[in-house]
Amino acid sequence: MRKRTRFIRQVFGLFSLFVILFSYAMFQGGFVSWFLFYSFLPFGLYSLAIAVYPFHRVIVRRVIHQRQLHAGDSLTATVEVRFPIWFPFVALTMEEADVPLLKMEQTKVTIPFIWKRTFSYTYELRELPRGEHIFSALRLTATDFFGLIEKNSIHFAEETILVYPRYIDIMYRKAEQQFDQGMAASLLQIHRDMTMAVGVREYAPGDRFSWVHWKASARKQRLMTKEFEERQRDDLIVVLDRTPTSLFEEIVTFVASFLRAAIKQGVQTGLVSVGSDRTIFPARNGEEHLQRLFYHLAKVACDSHEPFARVISNERANWRATVAFCYVTSYLQKELVFTLGEMSARRHEGTVFLIKDDLTKEERNWMEALRHKGIHVVVVSPRNIMTTLHKGRDEW
After folding, report:
1. Has residue 175 been placed in a domain?
2. What pLDDT, in 10s, does the model give residues 224-278?
3. What is the pTM of this model?
4. Which end of the chain is more exposed for a tag (fewer CB within 10 A), N or C?
5. Are residues 299 and 346 in the same domain?
6. Same domain for 221 and 82?
7. Could you tell me which residue ranges the DUF58 domain spans (predicted)?
8. Three-state secondary structure of the chain
9. Are residues 251 and 121 in the same domain?
């Protein structure tokens, strides 16, 4: 409505100039006054032609050249315009309508002296952020020689692009692997199958009371415990902390890199992502599963309204004891340490990846407390994540 009012004022101002110059020529007379009127006449008529030009019939088409995009990539698009009637435009400004999170000033371009019915221009958007971006419309602005008339028209051409998170080519190993600051033991830990006893042996300190084989103990007159079959944990679950943090993009980058490395290595890998929505991916393998994980990570936001420790407590009932867990977070607090300690006591051992630069003394104490409970803590520097992204190293 505001634009329409402005356009009416411009047209009214144009007619007012016509009337003023014509009245001046009629009452003043002479060569100079009529020269002014006739000199302005072609420019005024040109402005009037722009005002009545049928911009609603203009056909606008957008062609996006890349479909597989990752955060930090550049997007190249071509806009094709076809006019219904030939008209010699002095200048035409074209730009994309606002898209949240994108620097749309990079799409704005002013093209002078358009003499064709069909033309196109190409623009580039650099440093794309992760997420789903919807291009809804393009805006055309035509103007005359003196800027007396400026006519805007919006042409709807919806297009959606999905920018996946960036990832680092890291090596996933079953054996110990060196990370930036710290050592993570094997994520595929040994688990005792409590459902299958393969023999009995003498009681040893540290054995659980529930493992005691009472019949064998009575027979041999000393405590005997059941011996269970050991098997390897081949399933891996990554738990993503979606608590609001300034390091969330680095967290997503690390999770994407870790998931990709594990799945490429053939490990059955899942993801737990709880925020304003609850998304659970069971442990699976294959390229299709990896694409689903990346699709989720492309749109995920740090919008959790409850602490990470509470999310783990709420979800742990759904987890089997035969999987290994990785918790990726940027906070290490008392509640989280207590919850992970309880998980460890229930045979839910895991590894905590702490994405942080400078640790406080309290956080270092919490790290030691977790390590005493058998939970490995690996500190990953966000600065090194960004450096690795730019250098493109093959190993972490």
Report:
1. no
2. 887 654 444 568 899 999 999 999 999 999 999 999 999 988 888 999 999 999 9
3. 0.72
4. N
5. yes
6. no
7. 200-380
8. CHHHHHHHHHHHHHHHHHHHHHHHHHHHCHHHHHHHHHHHHHHHHHHHHHHHCCHHHCEEEEEECCCCEECCCCEEEEEEEECCCCCCEEEEEEEECCCCCCCHHHHCEEEEEECCCEEEEEEEECCCCCEEEEEEEEEEEEECCCCCCEEEEEEEEEEEEEEECCCCCCCCCCCCEEECEEEECCCCCEEEEEEEEEEEEECCCCCCHHHECHHHHHHHCCCEEEEEEEEECCEEEEEECCCCCCCHHHHHHHHHHHHHHHHHCCCEEEEEEECCCEEEEEEECCHHHHHHHHHHHHHCCCCCCCCHHHHHHHHHHHCCCCEEEEEEECCCCHHHHHHHHHHHHCCCCEEEEEECCCCCHHHHHHHHHHHHCCCEEEEECHHHHHHHHHHCCCCC
9. no
